[in-house]
Amino acid sequence: MLSVDRNIVHDNIPSFVSALCMMFGSYYCFNIHYPSDLASTLEFLQRCFFSINPEKGTKVEKTNTSRLHINPRVLILIQELSDHEWRDL
């Protein structure tokens, strides 16, 4: 099911892929920030699987600490996956 602000929006999602697409669509349609505990994972999925790659800005919750535009761990993982794909060809 998909729930936004503790309200069930959709309770019969047919597959995991559909649920994931609806979740990401909800983050963007309702302008919801990613929870800080899941920020790296969600940003990786956003950039690698959904090809949403904004030049600046992030959906990660704002904190008092300074942040780069893109999490460095996400960039490193994307680069390593890209390098691995090229080597397999």
TrEMBL record:
It comes from the Eukaryota. Keywords: Membrane, Transmembrane, Transmembrane helix. The chain crosses the membrane at residues 12-30. This is Uncharacterized protein. It comes from Pleuronectes platessa.
